[in-house]
Amino acid sequence: MNGALEQLSFLRRTAAGPAILTVQDMKLGARTSTIHINLCQPSEKKAKKGELEIKVAGYITVSPSTAEVGISSNTGWDLQPAAQPGTGPNGSVNLAALGQTGRDGKWVLLQPPYPKFRRATLQLELYGPDPALGKPKVIDQWSRFRPGGDREARWTNEAVAFLVDMFPMALGGLDQMASASTPSQELAEKTARFWYPTVTLNIDFKKRLPAQGAEWLYSRIHTKVVRDGRTDLNVVILDEQGDVVALSTQVGLVLSASRNLGQRQTKI
Q1: Which domain CATH number covers 200?
Q2: Which of 18, 14, 83, 80 is nearest to 260 (CA)?
Q3: Cis ω for the linkage preceding 113 (within 30 of 0)
Q4: What is the pTM of this model?
Q5: Is there a domain that residue 126 lies in?
Q6: Is residue 79 included in any domain, yes or no?
Q7: What is the pLDDT of residues 130-141, one digit of tens each?
Q8: Is 163 in contact with 227 (CB distance < 8 Å)?
Q9: Range of the domain at 37
Q10: How far, in Å, CA of 145 to CA of 168, rounded?
């Protein structure tokens, strides 16, 4: 499949472990096909302990590559503001140097905050502008896929769906804003105080990656408004050639981290 759209609603918190997926055909067509999918895990409620309940529900629309016909046009879109420069041609980042030394121009290897709490960040290697440059208006990152520490892994079309939800440095900025609204607490804590569960996630896959995968992908993340415990996040994924691979928008909540620390049942 070439083109794809995902619209997901996260109804309840999930747990690391087995899950059951149910798939229902909604429309099967020559140009586009749409399926409805539910991800189910055991309920955490005492009255329904062990009963399966829907945790995530969504619609996925796909198009076969043979059906992807029609006009294509260069819109002239570009990143604004421009990303921090590297030492490559025209100020691009020298990814080979960045990966080997952990630094290129104003870009450095980053250590995501609270990795024990946000364990998914351990599955990628993250690089961004040096934090010493100050707080940016947008978050830029280059990343390499490292599932289980596998240094030979590459970004695949399926893994892009994981990447659009990986922006630990953006969450670090939200941590600071949320902490500023509760000045009675210390800002520099060793454990995360806030949890940002996704409510809705929409992904538009624009370009298929090579069959062998891609070593590097770039993300641009920005937030427009944080209000009444709810935030928005917009993500653009580019490849090394600067082509748009995927676009994502999501709505999330800002909650106490204590609400995501309880034990969860994963046995099905």
Answers
A1: 3.10.129.10
A2: 14
A3: no
A4: 0.86
A5: yes
A6: no
A7: 999 988 889 999
A8: no
A9: 1-65
A10: 15
